[in-house]
Sequence to fold (590 residues):
Amino acid sequence: MTDGSGRLGREAVAVYGLWKRDLVRFWRAKSRVVGLLLGPFFILVFFGFGFSDARFGSIPSSLSYLEYLVPGILGFTMLFSASFTGLAVLSDREVGFLKEILVAPVSRTAVVVGRIAGGATTTMLQALLILVLAVPLGFRPVSLVGVGVAVVFLVLVAATFIGLGLAMASQFKDTQGYNLIVNFALFPLAFLSGAFYPLSNLPAPLQVVGYLNPLTYGVDGLRGALVGYSERALVVDFGAMVIAAVLTVALGAALFRRVEAV
Amino acid sequence: MNAIEVDGLTRRYGDLVAVDDVSFSVAEGEILGLLGPNGAGKSTLVNTLCTLLRPSEGTARVAGHDVVADPGGVRSSIGVVFQEPALDEELTGRENLRFHARLYGIRKQRRRERTATVLDLVDLADDADKPVGEYSGGMARRLELARGLLHEPAVLFLDEPTVGLDAGTRKTVREYVARLNREAGVTVVLTTHYMEEADALCDRVAIVDDGSVVALDAPDALKDGLGGDVIRLGTDGPAAVERAVGDAPWVRSVTRTGDGLDVGVDDGERRVAALVTAASEVAGVSTVSVDRPTLERVFLSLTGRTVEAADETGPGVAVAAETEADDD
Fold:
């Protein structure tokens, strides 16, 4: 059954297949995707306008609240859509499709890489869509280079939370338990990240939790790249995100490897 | 070389022994049926051979690869159709096959050839570009059969391939399985709890009960083990007939019944004429019928119950357990 192209080549074809499946399904689910993006978009519109005159502690006065908020909403959107990769694994299990994947002569590593690649791509597309929608609201990225740097941060945020989603999905047998935990974790993660307001406005104990949250560094990095304002040097944000991404992807891959198909 | 060799295979779930010290082998090109009621351990056995479950004890080799030491080798040599459907309903039939081909590392050129071949084999070429969500149960099953063969496996595992299908579709799917075996030369291992399916399709049948293989032979040999065919003769002179034919070399047994005799013979259809001729010389013959042994009776004689009865204990227990859970 080999095509004489070696093991690595075959694994690459399998990763491509997994990635392509996610994209095809994403494209077929266009209306569902738009529905999912409405939530973050409404927050962007109404918070952006509603709080336009409010002042939030350390936000410099040269920065409008909309400018402060857009990178935060991008991070929130990423969090939201990255959780769907874990959900996809579990719904594959529920409809039996996971067996088709796990009985194939493909290493678990390739399955994990394919899943993360597919999930990261679709998650990024959603974040970029939000970014495009923010432009008519009056949002302007500082530079094209900045957008490029932002894409790097988006990739890191996607990888981090997809890794986390896979790790959690491997602990559940069905989507119900997973959904419960995700719904429980989603908003605290978003509120403790500086996405909507500076962390320094929170009581000290909550700030500590916030600084342990990878999204804090992702959002700050995105803000630095897109509007030129960040609480930390971008290198610090970048380093923190790389560490977070490596750790969660490794954790997700290790736990997913032990998943039994039946 | 045998396609499958199983030696002392055991699989436990905690205290429950689902597969208990099973040994058998399957020749290349053979269709082997694993026949038994739900919960007998057939699916566990198949999942172990497919490397989805690890054996607790014993060894198994599939297409020359050990299921524990070389699961990758096993996986590239087998095709599997699971008991529950395992298709992506949002993709079309062709996209499901394309995804499968990529998982098995098959490149574009050969993928196209193989896809066309297997779609033809199961007569789905015209429906290949519809989403699988719009397929009927029978079409989905056929697509899974096609997919199982796409990467040209040496062994095809079918776990209850016709369960949940209506009688007509069941028959069609059986015909396709026979055709795949004949035309692709693939060795087939299938589990079933339908007697007629095992009888019609399989070269050999393993009767599985309570985690063990209690008998393994060709369907006819299993049935012959019961003592061959019985010719039921309605006659007004049973004693005379018994004297006339009782000593014939092809008569195994003679039993009196209410309106005549049951005569046990080796090959009922071939002997019926001779028996009737001999009987009508000494008495009047009113009715005659040949009763062939069935796998149902084989199963009954080996396990002391019918497959249906064994099946019913399964769901019954489950319902009881659910009721208890509700009370909590």
Observations:
- Chain B has twelve helices and 14 strands.
- The mean pLDDT of chain B is 86.
- The longest helix of chain B spans residues 307-327.
